[in-house]
Protein: Adenylate cyclase
Amino acid sequence: MLEFISEPLLVVLLAFCIVCLVVITFLLKKLKTLSHEKMSDVTPKPRAINQKPFEELPTERFEQRADEALRLRHTFQKFVPKQFVDHFAKHGSSVLELGHAVEDDVAILFCDIRGFTGLSENMSPQELMRFLNSYFLRMNDPIHLNGGFIDKFIGDAIMALFDHPDGCDEDKARDALCAALDLRQALTIYNQHRQNSGYPSIEIGIGIHFGPVVLGTVGSDDRMDTTVIGDSVNIAYRLEALAPIYHCDIVVSAQALQQAAQPERFSARLLDWVKVKGRSNAIEIHEVIAHLPIEIQQLKLSNVALIKQGLTYRFKQNWAQAINCFEQAAKLAPDDYLPRLHIQQCQKLAASPLAENWDGTVQL
Structure:
């Protein structure tokens, strides 16, 4: 009887043990899973092989931002020259804002292509842009290497300023004259390249003046530009326009030439006393010839005294003696256009009614 009862009891106990074992195994497995998940939240994930350490990430971001800022600065300087901003900083303003203006004495240079209108008529728009960019590219270095900066491009013309922040007024004038001579040298090389490529040569005229200007910003709230204004800018622009009239490469005012104070370096000769458009006072103008071959320089300098004497007679309205001086000057240098121009001017003045207070200058 006891044996019959104990046998089922053993089966029940065995079944109970098996169930407990399964439950304990399930609970242990669940506990292990939860523990692993918790540890994975605390422990950082493995980093990629090519990923840099944490301490290097801020440095990398800073370098990227610095490179981006430098690129933006270089781009900005293509539109607003650094020297222009430096002028404001020199006068105590570190912010380029609308309406700000400062005054300074600078040398102003204008450079223009002769006969550009006729030249451009034979080009397509794409050819014209390629030509201008090629030309400007070659004219850029002579200006920047001599301490100047290009204020603006006006069609085919270049307006450049020379301020020499660490120098004096003499340095400014010298920089502009040196740039003019280097521009002529760059043009010679450029024309050789054009001839080798089957294109015609081009000629340029250069005008230089020294004097006070106002540098400032103009425009509106959403469109601002830098500008340089003043009587000195007008004079430099008008002098450049006189270059083809007097058949000269470089026309410079007496103020700029005297300010440079190096006549042996910047060989020049007197051209005329003129009144340019927009001015009532006369301007003494000279031709810089230092870039020309020695024999041509000597030829142009051979009649300087006669030209000056002829102009003196012209001031006194002594037309016969003035023309006589210019004719002698033409005999000394038959290929020189200047004496013939003065003869034509005297003949025209002699046949025209002149004001009582006429000062001997030519209105151009």
In short: The first strand starts at residue 101 and ends at 113.
